[in-house]
């Protein structure tokens, strides 16, 4: 990878390549825990974490919210300048990947042919910068939710003409993905849901969504996309009720429609909490189904009831997430994408670096602690012991499918009363503190 990408203009002057300086450093523009070359469990941190920069929040978000106009002014004014700024930033922060929506990087247009022409030109710009830097595309996607045409959904829209318009965006995005060597392709159903069942045929809409995803899968494979298709669960917002509510719902949908061999899940921390789950729960559900694909790394504000997309700084939550990810054998072709934005009052370009440094250090520290836990082995041993009654005898026969319901009843009637066995939750939580801070 090139040290720093240099376009026609330097957009982040005075900031060089962010280096690892260790825990003792007080330099705010240096990593304290993320040493990309440090080997942990047989791979470097860079290989484990596979960090990606999100085009939309980092280079498009202007600080606006439902109650106020933008506060952040970007010095890049068009697609080429934005691409130069993006690759300068990505190479300075040292992330190996990036992600984007179509209209984050390329000008939108009502005309399909004009939209496609814009996208083709932008894809060429991105490819040139990828070749110059070695930065890779983790995944891209199509924004089929922001434009007013998608107010009633895209693949689930009651108007076939809108569904077809969304298909044009997905086709163009898949074309771009193959050219750029994308390792995954994401679907996020921002408007794939409903506000009221009074005017919604939910069964028909879900069947349309499955057919749409099937056609996209078939086209992607036809043009040479060999990566993983990803669906990103979220329960609501902007729709009142979105069809991809959480991991379990998406897994059931994929299996019902025979898509589970091509699709996995992209889990976002903030979406997990909006669904009433924890981040590690959603990761675990996907991992246990063999469908954990990638991660959008952020956090939400527990006092706010919406998707705040803050940079991850909670090491405890990141640790529990990394424990699942490492137990899963990693993320395969996926990675940790910072689907996060600086706060409305963080208006300096330098703040983008502080935010990414913090997020990368958080997960690097979580990775180190996870490895410490795995090397120690005590927590795994406690978990195994809790289920030891299934390792032999009748418990093992049950797991092997060798017992009937009558057999279970007879065992219960004959067996002596058993003592209560503590789950030791508080002790385990104290152990995590010791691993983190001891």
Give a structural overview.
The strands form 4 sheets. The protein has an 8-stranded parallel β-barrel, surrounded by 4 helices. Strands 1-2 form a two-stranded parallel ribbon. Helix 11 (315-327) links the parallel strand 13 (292-296) and strand 14 (336-338). It is globular, with a radius of gyration of 23 Å. It has helices spanning 45-49, 55-59, 79-93, 102-105, 112-133, 160-180, 202-222, 247-256, 269-274, 279-288, 315-327, 350-376, 378-386, 393-399, 405-414, 425-437; strands spanning 19-20, 30-31, 39-40, 43-44, 51-54, 97-101, 136-141, 184-187, 193-194, 228-231, 241-242, 263-268, 292-296, 336-338. The protein has 2 domains: 19-376, TIM Barrel (Alpha-Beta Barrel), CATH 3.20.20.150; 379-437, no CATH class. The protein is built from 16 helices and 14 strands. The model has no long low-confidence stretch (mean pLDDT 97). Helices cover 45% and strands 11% of the residues. With 438 residues, it is an alpha/beta fold.
């Amino acid at each position: 990878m090139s040290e720093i990408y240099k376009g026609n203009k330097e957009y982040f002057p005075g900031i060089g390549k962010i280096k690892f300086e260790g825990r003792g450093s007080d330099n705010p523009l240096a990593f304290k825990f993320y040493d990309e070359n440090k080997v942990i469990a047989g791979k470097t941190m860079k290989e484990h974490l596979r960090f990606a920069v999100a085009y939309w929040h980092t280079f498009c978000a202007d600080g606006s919210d439902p109650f106020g106009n933008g506060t952040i002014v970007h010095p890049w004014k068009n697609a080429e300048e934005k691409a130069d700024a993006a690759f300068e930033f990505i190479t300075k922060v040292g992330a190996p990947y990036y992600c984007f929506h179509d209209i984050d990087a390329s000008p939108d247009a009502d005309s399909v042919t004009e939209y496609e022409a814009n996208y083709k030109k932008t894809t060429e710009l991105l490819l040139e910068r990828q070749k110059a830097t070695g930065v890779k595309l983790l995944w891209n996607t199509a924004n089929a939710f922001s434009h007013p045409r998608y107010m009633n959904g895209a693949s689930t829209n009651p108007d076939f003409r809108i569904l077809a318009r969304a298909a044009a965006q997905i086709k163009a995005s898949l074309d771009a993905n193959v050219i750029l060597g994308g390792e995954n392709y994401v679907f996020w159903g921002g408007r794939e849901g409903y506000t009221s069942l009074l005017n919604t045929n939910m069964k028909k809409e879900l069947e349309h969504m499955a057919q749409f995803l099937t056609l996209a899968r078939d086209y992607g494979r036809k043009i040479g996309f060999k990566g993983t298709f990803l669906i990103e669960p979220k329960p609501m917002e902007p729709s009142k009720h979105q069809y991809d509510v959480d991991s379990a719902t998406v897994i059931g949908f994929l299996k019902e429609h025979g898509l589970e061999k091509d699709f996995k899940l992209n889990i976002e921390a903030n979406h997990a909490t909006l669904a009433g789950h924890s981040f590690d729960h959603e990761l675990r559900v996907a991992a246990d189904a063999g469908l954990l694909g990638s991660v959008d790394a952020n956090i939400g504000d527990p006092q706010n009831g919406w998707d705040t997309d803050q940079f991850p700084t909670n090491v405890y939550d990141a640790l529990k997430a990394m424990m699942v990810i490492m137990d899963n054998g990693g993320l395969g072709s996926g990675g940790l994408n910072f689907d996060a934005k600086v706060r409305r009052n963080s208006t300096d370009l330098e703040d983008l670096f502080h935010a990414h440094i913090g997020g990368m250090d958080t997960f690097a520290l979580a990775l180190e602690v996870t490895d410490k836990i795995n090397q120690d082995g005590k927590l795994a041993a406690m978990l195994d012991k809790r289920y030891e009654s299934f390792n032999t005898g009748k418990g093992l026969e049950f797991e092997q499918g060798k017992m009937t319901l009558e057999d279970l009843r007879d065992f219960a009637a004959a067996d002596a009363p058993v003592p209560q066995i503590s789950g030791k939750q508080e002790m385990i939580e104290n152990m995590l503190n010791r691993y983190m801070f001891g």
